[in-house]
Design a protein that fits this description.
Blueprint lengths: L1 H12 L1 H39 L3 E5 L18 E2 L1 H7 L4 E7 L1 E2 L3 E4 L13 E5 L2 H4 L2 E6 L7 E5 H6 L7 E5 L4 E12 L7 E5 L1 H8 L5 E2 L1 E6 L5 H12 L3 E5 H48 L1 H9 L4 H40 L14 H27 L2 H5 L8 H26 L4 H21 L1 H17 L4 H12 L1 H39 L4 E5 L7 H8 L4 E15 L5 E10 L3 H4 L4 E4 L9 E5 H7 L6 E6 L4 E10 L11 E3 H5 L12 E6 L4 H13 L5 E5 H44 L1 H9 L4 H39 L10 H18 L1 H8 L3 H6 L2
Parallel strand pairs: 6-11, 8-10, 17-22, 19-21
Antiparallel strand pairs: 1-13, 1-14, 2-12, 3-13, 4-6, 5-9, 7-10, 8-11, 9-10, 15-23, 15-24, 16-17, 16-20, 16-23, 18-21, 20-21
Helix pairs in contact: 1-10, 2-8, 2-10, 2-11, 2-23, 8-11, 8-17, 8-23, 10-11, 13-14, 13-25, 14-25, 15-16, 15-17, 15-25, 16-25, 17-23, 17-25, 23-27, 25-26, 25-27
InterPro entries: ABC3_permease_C, MacB_PCD, Macrolide_Exporter_MacB
Keywords: Cell membrane, Membrane, Transmembrane, Transmembrane helix
Membrane topology: Multi-pass membrane protein
Length: 860
């Protein structure tokens, strides 16, 4: 009980310092719990959606997706004949059945030719209005479509794009463009998944999406009373045979959930990874806090030992304080995590995915995990200071000698740090010289971990040297105040090293990712300059194919020298060694593609691969299967016939654009794939006549703007900028997540300075008494903070650039061979670190300056 009372007294005696440490725990736990609550809520929401929208049994074409997504590379959805509907209705246990037509290979525009697509990345869906949709949608105004000139739109899309009854829209598909007017608006009864949904009548949907009537993409089947979905599936399959895909509601929902789970898992584990970094940084804060609190209570600990307290009791007292800190920070963090999850849900609502707070899911494991992590991390971080407190001898403590400096422990620490750093450096060297990216990535991961640990362990040794250098460069110009700031930073190298290391971790990751991102952009830009020989690239930014009408519009554009179509076909290959490889792709293009993209070959010429019944393979595939020029490869095209193609070229594995691609001409492929099953173009290349580049660029944009606004025309400058912007957006998102760790590191600097001021109260009083002004005192503390922050920045940026340079060596194995150091970013981060130091010192400097001189001198 005495130990508990002592712990409580000490905890509340330093509540300001504890609050900063608790904030670090709170932020880390909140990020973990917020991530888990948000992803669990997403799962719950989509589980309900998939269950609500799935019929008891669904019949679709054999080649359709398990998730029910009705799309294909031909731009037309896979279909079943209308006769299937009658067969299904005659199956035992069927209450009702209805044929539907849906497609996601569509673009919808308003009267002003603006796209009516969701901003959340969700699909645009056009389909026939049916009874299954009526279960999840409610018509709030107007009426369902009853003719070819009518369309109904979901309420969220109507609200976002200001659509009202009578407005004209256009549906652009591979079949053509269909125009209709809004006849009705329907609201979701369940959570809106973010998709833009448009409904036509069944006959119009068939003509618009497929190009003919008498077909359906799905047949929705409802079971009679007492008939299970599994039994109904068996009965329907028995009636139809095995030429169709028959799925229960659970199978469709599970397939959709599995598809979604992959995306959610990437997001969840990425965010948890950043939360883990914040926890790691928080450890330094907690270690520093308790180390300094123990040092300040040296005499108190000596008195407790003198009156009979054992080492275990002293140790236990400190750990109880840590336990209280961990519990408080974790409980508040769990609550804040729920708030973060709600905030993320609101953010998703802004981009079109409306998640209801009624579906908010807080599994018992979430708060349990948050509390466990917060408490365990805090107690473990406090263990070393607690152990040191228990080792202080009573006489040494009463003399205020504190824990004697252990030179042997310091030497051991230095040796361990040097060994870890050397081991990490050697691992990075092995990664940089690896022949294969897979092998090198393992060495890179090991090198990152070892060098990071090494710098953390050797931090005090580095602090002694670097702070002196920084003092000579930065602090000495401030005269005596600067020298005092330098001595304060050097007074306890272990503390300075730990505080700087907390900032080092976040900045090392920032520097590493900046180097990798800049190198990727520079390398890709260089490859574009060396490889791409065309002027313009036309494609859909959402990954949809280019419809034939748009290709014709491109070909009719004045000022163009050539237009190259580019398609991707699924195929099964049988190689000369007798092995069969499935799920391969053949990139079919016009022969002019060899001029548009200058692909390096190790044998033959790529132009020869576009000769009749010819193809190319890539170097790795050729080596694996013993393929040489003149070898025959049997190619079975999905949806088509089998061809025997002669290998006329082997492309280099060093290629970046289309790395690992196998080429054939569209003319060759058309001999074996029926026209109605030929995929649409993935993209189109266009080259202007000499001297007409600017005019052709303008003409191309004009030709597509009105009738095909879904396609973007880019010249090489646009393409490079787009690449730079995409990588920049990704890096900015990562930097935003790393900001959590940097915030925790800043709290660590604040806490270290605040406790350091308390520790030096008498010293500050004496300095003030002999003439140090308040302004000089504040400047001294600010300079000390700046030098600690800059020290951490130097370590972090140096370490991060080393990691980034090594990672670039691995990227070079994939063809990205240019190393580029983003000096503006690195310089900005370095300067920003100095401002971080200034900011962190504001409160401690202000409090120090307000001290009463006489009271400070009288302090024990």
């Amino acid at each position: 009980m005495t130990v508990l009372k002592t712990s409580l007294r000490n905890f509340f005696a330093h509540k300001g310092r504890m609050a900063l440490s608790a904030t670090a725990v709170l932020l880390s736990v909140a990020f973990v719990c917020g991530t888990l609550v948000f992803t669990d809520t997403m799962n719950t929401t989509f589980d309900k959606l998939f269950q609500a929208t799935s019929s008891d049994v669904t019949v679709s074409a054999q080649g359709s997706s398990d998730t029910g997504e009705t799309t294909s590379r031909t731009g037309r959805p896979p279909v079943v004949p209308a006769s299937v509907l009658g067969q299904v209705r005659s199956a035992e246990g069927v209450k009702s059945a209805e044929g539907t037509v849906f497609s996601t290979s569509v673009t919808v525009v308003d009267a002003d030719k603006d796209k009516l697509s969701p901003s959340s990345g969700a699909p645009t869906i056009v389909g026939s209005w049916n009874h299954n949709d009526a279960r999840t949608m409610e018509i709030t105004s107007g009426a369902a479509p009853r003719g070819p000139d009518q369309v109904m739109v979901d309420a969220d899309t109507a609200g976002k794009h200001h659509l009202k009854l009578g407005d004209e829209i256009g549906v652009i598909t591979a079949v053509g463009t269909h125009h209709a007017r809004v006849s009705g608006i329907a609201a979701f009864k369940v959570t809106n998944p973010g998709a833009a949904i448009f409904y036509l009548d069944t006959r119009t949907a068939q003509q618009t999406l497929v190009g003919r009537t008498g077909v359906y993409t799905n047949v929705n089947v409802t079971a009679a009373t007492g008939v299970t979905d599994e039994r109904l599936k068996r009965n329907v399959t028995a009636e139809l045979g095995h030429g169709y895909k028959v799925q229960t509601a659970k199978e469709v929902a599970d397939a959709n959930q599995k598809d979604l789970q992959g995306i959610l898992d990437v997001m969840k584990y990425a965010m948890l990874g950043f939360a883990g970094i914040a926890f790691l940084v928080g450890i330094f804060l907690i270690v520093n806090t308790f180390s300094m609190l123990v040092a300040q209570r040296t005499r108190e600990i000596g008195l407790m030992r003198a009156i009979g307290s054992s080492r275990k009791q002293i140790n236990r007292s400190v750990l109880i304080e840590a336990l209280l800190l961990g519990v408080l920070g974790s409980v508040l963090g769990v609550g804040a995590g729920v708030g973060i999850a709600v905030g993320l849900m609101k953010l998703m609502g802004q981009v079109g995915m409306h998640l209801s707070t009624s579906d908010l899911t807080v599994a018992w494991t979430t708060p349990a995990l948050g509390l466990l992590l917060g408490v365990v991390v805090t107690v473990l971080a406090a263990y070393l200071p607690a152990r040191r407190a228990g080792k202080i001898s009573p006489m040494a403590a009463l003399r205020e000698a504190g824990a004697p400096a252990d030179a042997r422990a310091g030497a051991v620490r230095a040796v361990i740090g040097v060994l870890l750093t050397a081991g990490g450096g050697w691992s990075l060297r092995l990664a940089a010289t690896a022949d294969q990216a897979k092998t090198g990535s393992g060495w890179l991961g090991l090198g990152v971990v070892l060098t990071l640990l090494g710098f953390v362990v050797i931090g005090p040794l580095l602090a002694g040297g670097l702070v002196r250098v920084l003092g000579a460069l930065i602090l000495r110009i401030f005269g005596p105040v600067g020298r005092m700031a330098e001595r304060n930073a050097l007074r306890n190298p272990r503390r300075t090293g730990a505080t700087g290391a907390a900032l080092m971790i976040g900045l090392a990751l920032v520097a590493c990712l900046s180097v990798v991102g800049s190198s990727m952009v520079a390398s890709a830009t260089d490859q574009l300059d060396k490889t791409v020989g065309t002027d313009f690239i036309i494609q859909d930014d959402n990954g949809k194919e280019v419809v034939p009408q748009a290709v014709e519009a491109i070909k009719k554009t004045p000022g163009l020298k050539r237009v190259t179509e580019y398609k991707v076909l699924d195929a099964t290959l049988t190689t000369p060694d007798g092995r069969t490889t499935e799920k391969e792709t053949i990139n079919a293009a016009d022969p002019t593609y060899a001029q548009d993209v200058r692909t390096k070959t190790v044998a033959g010429s790529l132009a020869d691969a576009y000769r009749p019944d010819s193809m190319s393979v890539f170097e790795g595939f050729a080596d694996k299967h013993g393929i040489k020029l003149g070898s025959k490869v049997t190619v079975h095209f999905r949806g088509g016939r089998t061809a025997g193609l002669t290998v006329r070229a082997i492309t280099s594995d060093e290629a970046v654009i289309d790395k690992g691609a196998m080429y054939a001409s569209i003319t060759t492929v058309a001999r074996y794939v029926p026209a109605d099953r030929m995929p649409l173009d993935v993209l189109v290349f266009a080259t202007a006549r000499d001297g007409q580049e600017a005019a052709a660029y303008t003409s191309l944009k004009a030709a597509l703007h009105d009738d095909f606004p879904q396609y973007t025309v880019r010249d090489q400058t646009d393409y490079k900028q787009e690449l730079k912007d995409q990588i920049g957006q990704l890096l900015n998102m990562i930097y935003g997540l790393l900001a959590l760790a940097i915030i925790v590191a800043v709290l660590g600097v604040v806490n270290t300075l605040a406790l350091s001021v308390v520790e030096r109260t008498r010293e500050i009083g004496l300095m003030r008494a002999i003439g140090l002004s308040r302004r000089q005192l504040r400047r001294m503390i600010r300079l000390e903070s700046v030098v600690i922050a800059v020290f951490g920045a130097l370590l972090g940026l140096g370490l991060g650039m080393g990691w980034g340079a090594t990672a670039q060596k691995l990227l070079a194995l994939e063809g990205l061979k240019i190393l580029e150091i983003p000096w503006p970013t690195i310089t900005g981060v370095f300067v920003g670190s100095a401002f971080v130091g200034l900011f962190a010192a504001l409160v401690p400097a202000f409090r120090a300056a307000r001290m009463n001189v006489l009271n400070a001198i009288a302090t024990d």
